[in-house]
Design the sequence.
């Protein structure tokens, strides 16, 4: 058979501040036929996630930086479309870290079969995947709320935050969410079932918490940092906990950012701030899959996806994360 | 017998920024003879501590604010000099929170007898008292270092820091201390036995850590905040812990203070910052007394005191805390 025509997205240059389309390049390649033992995988959905911004910087971190001129990587769900005696049958759907491309060849390393009968394919990049597990361990294992606790979630309508809100409700907490549009606030109130939600672009976070968390908060699940974290520190009750999952407000800063200005409150209030990354917690994957599939089947956890069509629009989808274009998980249909 | 002539220090006005002598007033009073069931206590030593600065502000906190025109309070060790059938015999030495005065009357509530044969009287305000317990629980229960960990201590020659350094050494840690004078650095190296120490007024904290903690740090015991915390966050290794005990650099700030600018590091490094106050940990008092009296008897923990003479000099002693006049515990001999 003829070589396979493939399109993929390369890192053209390292962003300084807010990334732009010029930092990305759409590249056409041709893949050879699968060698013996290899499979050809056609991606169906790929993930864009805020953490990828960190990998675009050339610095030591918990994952190595992306390299200029090379294809980006990230979560993707694809299908084995050709197998030359490879380990998985043609037709099998697989989760991989080989996103940002339409096709790839694999000997099976790093591929996890997924069942499209159990949950929609794209959900393995969201509620059933890495963002869902992030929400699960960040809330249950890091923040450890008790029933009755007031839990504040920023980025509450995003891929992680929307799941945090709903798990917190299932655990008997009072949930207050912040999001960046009235439509997201509506979704939180009417679909996710939070107790209160506010649009942080329409009122300062401190005002939102003063209004909707009159008894203070016991847990803050931070996806945003900056003003959100500062306001949360002020609103936290004694012995409060902060699960620090992300600080999307800081990722494009070109100088060190000075918030929060009230960090000394951690002493008198005996607060704990704990950063975490999901890859340390894959031992909880079995528990997560068991609980989440039950919650989804029971209608107790709902989710949204914002879908961009075509690999050529993957950079735009990624950029959209930083302007809040997504309700729920942002994915690209390849 | 005639009324007892007493001198005490009142809060004259609330400090704005750095406190001054004008915020305090020396007041002469006369106490009546002890009523039946009462004792007259003559203070011998009283404590001045950085936390008292917080109580001079009129705000809700973990202890109520001092009131203008009223006598200040704080730790003190005194002696029962007269008893009118009170619960303790004349001559008994007692620890109380009735500092900032020469004499007081008591029915015994809030008095703890102390044994001057076990440790010097003034040490019950320092290494054997609240600052010692603060060091003990902050290091062992909050920061939880393992043998071999690199532990960075700020305010390392102070009442709390000097004890933290020595307990950390006893637990097999590598200890790096920062202090505000060369004399304090000498004491840390030659008496407290730390592995490295530097004068933060002679080099930036970040430079001190780069030079003396080449492998990074695993624990930061924070007494200072500000630049110290920012530099420590940058130097912390993955899964590092910060025990947030105090932020003396911030206590006199007249506007919110913007450091640290690198708090987002808590995510990728999976750091934990935990604030604590000693009064939550009095269940550890027995363990602390047992361990500390053994360490002192064995010469494994050394301590210093800086003694101001006379109740009239208590305000100067307190002010001296913020310019680092003290090596070890600052006390006032009444």
Sequence:
């Amino acid at each position: 058979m003829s070589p396979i025509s493939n399109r993929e997205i390369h890192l053209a240059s390292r962003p300084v501040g807010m990334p732009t389309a010029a930092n990305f390049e759409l590249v056409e390649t041709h893949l050879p036929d699968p060698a013996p033992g290899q499979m050809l995988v056609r991606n169906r959905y790929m993930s864009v996630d805020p953490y990828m911004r960190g990998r675009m910087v050339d610095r030591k971190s918990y994952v190595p930086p992306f390299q200029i001129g090379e294809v980006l990587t990230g979560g993707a769900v694809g299908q084995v479309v050709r197998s030359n005696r490879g380990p998985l049958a043609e037709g099998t759907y697989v989760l991989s870290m080989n996103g940002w491309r339409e096709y790839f060849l694999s000997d099976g390393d790093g591929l996890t079969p997924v069942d499209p009968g159990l949950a929609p394919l794209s959900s393995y990049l969201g509620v059933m995947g890495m963002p869902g597990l992030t929400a699960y361990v960040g809330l249950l294992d890091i923040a450890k709320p008790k029933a009755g606790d007031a839990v504040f979630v920023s980025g509450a309508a995003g891929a992680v935050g929307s799941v945090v809100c709903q798990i917190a409700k299932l655990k008997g907490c009072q949930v207050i969410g912040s999001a960046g549009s009235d439509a997201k606030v509506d979704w939180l109130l009417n679909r996710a079932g939070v107790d209160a939600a506010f649009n942080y672009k329409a009122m300062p976070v401190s005002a939102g918490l003063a209004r909707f968390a009159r008894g203070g908060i016991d847990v803050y699940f931070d996806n945003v940092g900056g003003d959100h974290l500062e306001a949360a520190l002020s609103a936290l009750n004694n012995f409060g906990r902060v699960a620090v999952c992300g600080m999307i407000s800081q990722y494009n800063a070109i100088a060190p950012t000075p918030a929060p200005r009230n960090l000394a409150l951690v002493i008198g209030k005996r607060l704990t701030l704990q950063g975490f990354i999901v890859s340390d917690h894959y031992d909880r994957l079995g528990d997560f899959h068991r609980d989440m599939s039950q919650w989804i089947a029971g209608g107790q956890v709902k989710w949204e996806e914002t879908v961009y069509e075509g690999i050529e629009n993957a950079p735009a989808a990624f950029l959209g994360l930083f302007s809040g274009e997504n309700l729920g998980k942002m994915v690209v249909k390849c």
